[in-house]
Write a structure and sequence with these properties.
The chain has a 6-stranded antiparallel beta sheet. A 5-stranded antiparallel beta sheet has the order 11-41-40-39-38, with no helix packed on it. Mean pLDDT is 76; it is low at 157-173 and 308-428. Helix 5 (193-209) runs antiparallel to helix 7 and helix 7 (238-247) packs antiparallel against helix 8 (258-271). The protein is α+β, with helices and mostly antiparallel strands and 767 residues long. The protein contains 10 helices and 45 strands.
């Protein structure tokens, strides 16, 4: 399935005639090209701002040279490239087919014989990759395309060759949570061929069961399980389970080599009476439903898409109409809404359509999210309308791909919700989903804090120098008021009584003047803090990895008391929460602790479930404390005495930390859905499909609830109804790596290119 070219897309790249859009990746846009002889090619055009970077050109040239050495049947071969061109480009073999991730999302887990055949093809692909002295480092379902004669491993954009490993940015972890090897998560992060074998085992387990062998949840939880816990393989057939278990050995030396793995898979296939993928197998190696879908896609893509229609004539009164950026069309280039996210992409990945929301069992059946009254069409309904879901619509750095929806720009995006008159967040007439301001080349380290018309952010305005500081920015226009240099990278700041409080994980706590950034005190402590600070009534509260909750005097930093509780040092503890004279924190045994904020004495405890862990902060409202545990449930407890009011088992997946506003508890399970629960009863009010993995807790404010997927999409919903107001797609493969912050009708968040470790942007968007 392809999408038509748009205005501004190239029609010729090198000797290749460009006929359609395929997708977008970390390096740029990907097009379907035709060689002079008519051969279909995937042509990747490098983004202009990358091509101008001398360091990137060196890395790109070396990776292309290494990729040219890969000649395996089950890889997408590099055929042609022009590294000095304007623009630079790369042409690879075109593989018409959906990704493994999309196939699993649409058609469910695979039978054992198909998974074994998949594993044989992937192992042979890795054999070719490793023979070229390349380690892929990001083998995952979305980097596997399904072709008639077997799988294809794609996207070596963040692979590491022997020559270019020194160019990898220090401190950058390359890979995808749930599919990374233990050695990728250690201090040095060095990964060899055995790391790809581990990832292959995780992919096969995912294909057979529909879930990863280490579960789901926040990255730190997944990373801990990968390093310390045994994989969950009970759902695998015995023969396949034995192969996967060997691949997932913690020690790389205990994993089979790729050659040995091929022998294992071949023997197991013979024992099952099946065979491995081979040329001209006519899709016979795939599950029937997937084979039928690929045949249908192949028929639908038999012809190239039609060229884009001519643009409509200009409106004579257009000069009087503001654009989405607040400028007139004469001042601003047009912004075109992007096509839907891909159903078939090469390269890099494909994203399956989210399922329709499930109505609460105790409420009347609700209309699906795609057709709810007053809402614009979602990406899924737009894909049905266009019948050509593909490329992630992005352009250069700083140019964003806006939400899909009605062409009129009306509907439920909140266009009738201007910012409050005179609010520090921006103009009162700002339209929802528009950019108030942005700062390119600003690397945001954690969620901002907003107070008294100032945005306090930890990061660097010069990512190349990596000079970290606390920056005070004007909330109206983003102008810098002051910067306080820091010698470490603190987490999220907290602001109270004219002071900004910061915690450097496993190091110390700072207090800086909110007006000038001058340091007032620092508390090193023998037992270093690990969480963001919580501040109330002149006291700062922080927790440590050794299970201690500290109370510090906010004026001078002197310790007032310490409270101990069970904790696992390898896990990041939840930040403490303070309300009405009580501090709340969870422990490694699934227990919520209520501590007197003045004395540090325990008031009460409430257990969740045996063996559970409370990994996220609690939320307090209207005399009730809400918390979640990694057993998949959310709990409501009486704040006065600790008695249980209700519990809600959401799913088998780990819930996020709950957020409470206006009588509603918001929580998601990181992979499937965002839920809105009645705070008094725990009954479900609505749910919304996440549309991808989510590694950050939801954020609620000003009548909106926000969440960010690992694909780099920020979605803003109406907190009351669950209707989508607008969404934002980051540039190319940029991600939103820290929780957004909402204040004064504005949402603040930062993006950066995950693959390259650069192209940082801080945004302030109108809610």
């Amino acid at each position: 399935m392809l999408t038509a070219l748009e205005a501004g897309d190239p029609r010729q790249v090198g000797r290749y005639r460009i006929v359609a859009r395929l997708g977008a990746g970390g390096m740029g846009r990907v097009f379907l090209g035709r060689s002079p002889g008519g051969r279909a090619m995937a042509v990747k055009v490098v983004r202009a701002e990358l091509a101008e970077d001398a360091g990137f050109r060196r890395r790109f040239a070396r990776e292309v040279a290494a990729a040219r050495r890969v000649t395996g049947v089950f890889t997408a071969a590099v055929v042609d490239a022009d590294l000095a061109g304007s623009p630079a480009w790369l042409a690879t073999e075109y593989v018409p087919g959906m990704s493994l991730g999309e196939a699993l999302a649409k058609h469910g887990p695979w039978p054992e014989s198909a998974v074994l055949a998949l594993g044989a093809g992937l192992a042979e692909a890795l054999e070719a990759v490793h023979a070229a002295r390349i380690v892929h480092r990001d083998l995952k379902p979305s980097n596997v395309l399904l072709a008639p004669d077997g799988p294809r491993v794609i996207d070596f954009g963040i692979s590491v060759t022997d020559e270019v490993s020194v160019l990898t940015q220090a401190g950058t972890v390359v890979g995808t949570p749930g599919f990374m090897s233990p050695e990728q998560l250690t201090a040095d992060g060095q990964a060899g061929p055995a790391s790809d074998v581990f990832s292959l085992g995780a992919v096969l387990a995912f294909a057979a069961t529909g879930s990863g062998p280490f579960g789901t949840g926040a990255p730190h939880a997944l990373h801990y399980r990968i390093v310390h816990e045994r994989p969950a393989l009970s759902g695998l057939p015995p023969r396949l389970g034995a192969v996967v278990a060997r691949c997932l050995a913690k020690d790389p030396r205990e994993r089979p080599t790729v050659a040995a793995l091929l022998d294992d898979l071949g023997q197991t296939l013979q024992e099952s009476g099946k065979d491995s993928p081979r040329p001209h197998s006519a899709l016979g190696w795939l599950p029937p439903a997937v084979a039928r879908a690929l045949r249908d896609d192949d028929r639908a893509a038999a012809t190239d898409p039609a060229p884009p229609p001519a643009p409509p004539p200009a409106d004579e009164d257009a000069h009087e109409t503001p654009t989405r950026t607040g400028r007139t069309p004469a001042q601003s280039p047009p912004v075109h809404p992007p096509p839907a996210r891909p159903a078939t992409v090469h390269p890099p990945t494909a994203v399956g359509a989210p399922a329709a929301p499930i109505p609460a069992p105790d409420s009347p059946a609700a209309p699906p999210a795609d057709t709810a009254p007053g809402r614009r069409p979602s990406r899924r309904s737009r894909r049905q309308i266009l019948a050509a879901a593909l490329a992630l619509g992005t352009t250069g750095a700083g140019i964003t791909a806006w939400k899909l929806g009605g062409d009129s720009g009306d509907g439920d995006r909140g266009g009738d919700r201007p910012g409050a008159e005179g609010s520090p967040g921006g103009k009162a007439t700002a339209e929802s989903g528009t950019e108030r301001w942005s700062l390119p080349d600003f690397a945001l380290m954690d969620s901002p804090a907003v107070a008294d018309g100032t945005v306090y952010v930890v990061g660097t305005a010069d990512p190349e120098s990596r000079a970290v500081g606390l920056h005070a920015l004007d909330a109206t226009g983003g102008e810098q008021r002051w910067t306080a240099p820091l010698d470490e990278s603190p987490g999220r700041p907290a602001v109270a009584d004219g002071t900004v409080f910061l915690t450097v994980p496993d190091d110390r706590t700072y207090a800086l003047g909110a007006a000038d950034g001058e340091q007032r005190w620092t508390y090193p402590g023998g037992d270093a803090p690990a969480t963001a600070p919580a501040v109330a009534a002149g006291t700062v509260y922080v927790s440590t990895r050794t299970g201690k909750l500290y109370a510090l005097d906010a004026t001078g930093g002197k310790r007032r008391w310490v409270y101990g509780y069970p904790w696992e040092p390898s896990l990041s503890p939840p930040a403490p929460v303070v309300a009405d004279g009580t501090v709340y924190t969870g422990d490694a045994e699934g227990v919520l602790h209520a501590v007197d904020s003045a004395t540090g004495k325990r008031r009460w405890t409430n257990p969740s479930a045996k063996g559970a862990v409370v990994l996220s902060p609690a939320a307090v409202a209207d005399g009730t404390v809400h918390f979640s545990a990694d057993n998949g449930s959310v709990y409501a407890v009486d704040a006065a005495g600790g008695g249980r009011r209700w519990s809600a088992p959401l799913s088998e997946l780990q819930p996020s930390g709950p957020v409470v506003a206006d009588g509603t508890v918001y929580v998601h399970d990181f992979t499937d859905r965002l839920y809105a629960l009645d705070a008094a009863s725990g009954k479900r009010r609505w749910s919304f499909p996440l549309g991808g993995d989510v590694h950050l807790d939801p954020v609620v404010g000003d009548g909106s609830v926000c969440f960010a997927t690992t694909e780099g999409r920020l979605t803003v919903l109406d907190a009351r109804t669950g209707g989508e107001r607008w969404s934002f797609d980051a540039v190319a493969e940029s991600v939103i790596a820290s929780p957004p912050a909402i204040a004064d009708g504005t949402v603040y968040f930062g993006t950066h290119d995950q693959a390259e470790g650069r192209h940082f942007i801080l945004y302030a968007m109108a809610l």
